[in-house]
Design a protein that fits this description.
Elements (H helix, E strand, L loop, with lengths): L1 H17 L7 H4 L6 H6 L1 E5 L19 H6 L3 H11 L7 H4 L7 H10 L4 E7 L10 H7 L14 H9 L5 E7 L6 H5 L1 H20 L3 E5 L6 H4 L1 H10 L8 E2 L31 E5 L18 H13 L3 E6 L9 H17 L13 E3 L13 H6 L11 E8 L4 E6 L6 E4 L10 E3 L4 E2 L2 E4 L2 E5 L14 E5 L4
Parallel strand pairs: 1-2, 1-7, 2-3, 3-4, 4-5, 6-7
Antiparallel strand pairs: 8-9, 9-10, 10-16, 11-15, 12-13, 12-16, 14-15
Amino acid sequence: MKKNFLFILCVFFSSVATAQNYKPTWPSLDTRPLPQWFKDAKFGIFIHWGVYSVPAYCKKGNYAEWYQHALMSGDSATVAYHKNKYNNISYYTFADQFKAELYNPDEWAKLIESSGAKYVVLTSKHHDGFANWPSEEASRDWGFPWNAMDTGPHRDLLGDLFAAIRKTSVHAGMYYSLYEWYNPLWLHNRPKYVSDHMWPQMKELINKYQPDVFWTDGGWDASDTLWKSREFLAWLYNESPVKDKVVTNDRWGSGIRFHHGGVYTPEYQPDMDFKDHYWEESRGMGFSYGYNREEDAWDYNSAQVLVISLIDKVSRGGNFLLDIGPDADGKIPPIMQERLLQIGEWMKINNEAIYNTVRWKTPSQWSEGRTDYKPKNGGGDIMLKLTVEPDPGYAVKECFFTYNPTQKNLYVLLPKWPGKKFVIKDLSLKPGTKIELLDTDQSLTWQQKGNHITVDFPEFDPSTMKSKYVYVIKITKLD
């Protein structure tokens, strides 16, 4: 009995000693491991939806969710649009028009799961301060109804989506803006705004909804000291109900991004790479994150571009967060639905080359030529320029690589059908190694020629294949 008691004590004190207690310092907080589920997931859906979805307007190449800021700062196109369409009414009256009458969170959840995405991040509150959940602080500190329960939809938009998402295989997450452009408390007493408005909101969101992702933004206007970001993260990692599973990012104050706080978050920066830190690039299907009625069909990236964007991030060890912007009625625009379903069709066949993979020693294989492309139009064009439509004299990424370290499978992702043969450079395989085409489960013959592998492809029309955007070959149990 005494021995058993001593054994239990040893186990107890050992577990206490090994349990991490994070201090409110960046050296301590930055040691917190990123939850494995996020690194395995690779693909997420961002959703920007709020009062700004009523006007749903900005000039092409801008953000429609910044409508209030553009209006108040005197952007000429926004001011003219607002005057002509709304006769200069207050931005805050849009809350009454934000009805979300056609919002069906179960349909959203089904669509998102069908896309192959493994997590979703919905705006709980953007920079205008309107809360998509029943936030007491939102209406109290603005001095009028300014949350989705007190006005507009009169429902908990965030909670309803979380309930629907949790019926699926998708992880539920939320976006939260630290600051609010014109909040009276923020404008007159910033420390009080942080202590009496922001912190209570954030703690309520964490305790009530228990998100798998807490994606902060809007921290650039003040230091992490004013926001008390380090203290909040210490509470989040040590005491909160999501301390072991929640994923955070790097937007916690001026100068923090790309240095501290969690996952690094490039935005429309497709040429950024972080070999030694986990990252996630976000972008819209067009350019705006919030729905922009000014954008046309040709402003939306094709499913091919979006799939190539996904594999480009994954091959370099990151995640891809693709945004959709529902309208004020709560409908996801059909062109966005179509893109998600098209991506999903590709993922059904090729998802093993995406999920649970890591960066291979060489993320991609280049042809001969220049590689100094500069992204334009939000970076969508560069994906085609880098792969299937190069400018004269420029190189292309002939293929991308991903690797599953558990199964020891190497995946070669080809953005263009290679014809009869494809050469994988600087790779040696043991005789008998199996190579197959995922689309058809067809075994492919191959030959070792020096330090390169030549793979033979079947002769048929690649346009008849289901995975027509990117073709994937699997090399099994690579040593």
